[in-house]
Amino acid sequence: MKPTHRKFNKILSIITLSIILSNCAYDFSEDSFFEVTQKTPTASISLNSLSDNQIFYVTTRVNFSYNGNNKHRLYEIKIYIDNIEIKTTTTNSGDFIIDTESLEDGNHILKIEYIFSSGSGSLADVSGVEAYIKTEEYNFIVDKSPPPTIVMKSVEIIDGSIYLKWEPITETNFDKALLIITNNGNSNYLEITKQELLNLTYNDTYVHTSTSCTGGQSGNYLEYEIYLENTRGNTISNKVSLSIKPFEIQKLILNENEYKLIIPKHALYNNFDYYSFNDDYNNSVHKVSSQGGEIIVDEPIKFPNLNIGVTFSLYQESGSEDIYKGCLFTFESYFEQFDSGAGGSYNEYIYNEDNDVIYALKIDSSCGSCLDNITIYKLDPIDLEIIDSKVIAIVEAYDNQELTIDPITHNLILDAGSISLLVDKNNFSIINQWEISGFGEQSGNIFYRDNIIVIEQVDNIIFYDSSTKAQFYAVSKTGYFNISDNGRYFYANDTIFEINNKIVIPLTITNTNNSVNLVKFMEGLNKCIYNTYDGNPVIFDFASQTKTVLSDFTRINIMDYDVYTKKLLLVRSEYGFGNSTPSYAYVYGLMTNEFKRIEVGNIVSAWNPEEIPRGYWFANNKLIYRYVDRNGYYLDHYINE
Fold this sequence. Notes:
Elements: E1 4-7, H1 11-23, E2 44-46, E3 54-56, E4 60-67, E5 74-81, E6 84-89, E7 93-98, E8 106-117, H2 123-127, E9 131-142, E10 152-158, E11 161-166, E12 176-183, E13 186-191, H3 194-198, E14 201-204, E15 220-230, E16 233-236, E17 240-244, E18 250-255, E19 258-263, E20 274-279, E21 284-289, E22 293-298, E23 302-303, E24 310-316, E25 323-330, E26 336-339, E27 345-352, E28 357-364, E29 372-379, E30 386-395, E31 402-405, E32 412-415, E33 419-423, E34 430-435, E35 445-449, E36 452-456, E37 460-465, E38 471-476, E39 481-483, E40 489-492, E41 495-500, E42 503-509, E43 518-522, E44 527-531, E45 538-541, E46 546-549, E47 558-562, E48 567-572, E49 583-589, E50 594-600, E51 616-619, E52 622-625, E53 631-635
Parallel strand pairs: 3-9, 23-50
Antiparallel strand pairs: 1-9, 2-4, 4-7, 5-6, 5-8, 8-9, 10-11, 11-14, 12-13, 12-15, 15-16, 15-17, 18-19, 19-22, 20-21, 20-24, 24-25, 26-53, 27-28, 28-29, 29-30, 31-32, 32-33, 33-34, 35-36, 36-37, 37-38, 39-40, 40-41, 41-42, 43-44, 44-45, 45-46, 47-48, 48-49, 49-50, 51-52, 52-53
């Protein structure tokens, strides 16, 4: 700044004195004279901390304020830029515009000229004819270039919160600054101040989810960039990115009416204080620290319960009313979901311990009288993900296709009505096949078991040697028939039979009030279990010839046996008109004689309760459900403990 001063003499006083002296004659002694000292004026103008050589990037309004220290009265202020007057005023305060749009890039001079009273107290001062003129000059620079481009350095999670860093900024010639946060492809724009940019770091305290209350299991991929804008253009920084691992909880069944939620420490635990979980069944609210914890929920358990998912609201503690920070939704349930493939009906899920694979048998048919496509799936034993599949056969429509494991070779046996196939367990190639026509029969269902062929007809059951095709036994049939996987035992006509060296021996009569609707032969235990729909299941021991009635169970219409775990699955699935009773699955340990129970969905109609349904299986310690839709479900804890 370059201030200059120019003093007006006391014009009126001098003129008056001259007139008097011209008309009078006086003698002055030397001691009659004294010198009047002129004091430096103390008036000033403040320009909002405007400094010399200040840089203006955008049009700026500058406030001014005159201060006469109660001595110097203001007469006038004139403001010039490059000697062009832009404002004249007589008020003590106001503002003016430095219009960068009308100025060239480069150096400019701001000049402020103000006139004020001398403040001497003389007659001229009092009369307003004695004044000072004061001039102040400021150099300033106009920079109309586009804003600088921010260089982002890093983004990272530190102590449960997100921190950004960028390189130092040399210019602030922008009037808009936005932090762009892109979360899994969805962008949000947050205004940030110049001071925040000059801090060279930013703490993102938001709790990021994918979209409205979702994003638990998918995780988050965050991208950050900074956008700057002025009237000449805009710039955008490079991106820095951050992945936040999926939010995964555990939901574990404790008993039939209680489960436990295990909630992990959140990656952004310092961006909020606690999770809030609404327990609608009990009309209560549970709170868990953002550091993680557990919740016990009292609620009847059902498998599968398709009303799955858990929503957590996130809060930051703040005095009388906590601050809502967002929400998270996770599909986590106490059971797992798997893709079982589109369409078709599933007739079997079975575990082969020999190669640690679960196999699934699916039947597809485009109409009731059309040929069936029979497909075998190879599934991962842990999560039931499809590893491989192959259409094995196309046969006439048949309702009871069956897939079993050959106990001798551990390959697959597929019984499909008029044909029975031995299928390689690894590549699904057909090792051998047998058709009813090859044994001189025109109708019936054929079964292969360890060098034995059985043909079941409407009224007869006929047994053959698979190699020689010689018949070695035949019997008339009434009702249900089943044969063991190893071909040593079968059920027919209310009797359990043994086959020993092609000799058929009756072992026991079932002696039930009503017809047997289910029989399962338990390989490796020399036992079988049989059941009538309205009675109790009975376990028959081949060696001791003893029977054990399982009185805890009744009205069972699904049975499955897992050779690997030596456990039985018993399912009571029913539905009554207007008064449905719960359906239950029981997993019974044959080595411990203990069972676990869980409520399951109904899959049998009241019109035909004795129909043999499918929909639940037990394989590799998993309770598996697949009925109509593409999705299958499995439970791999509690029920198998």
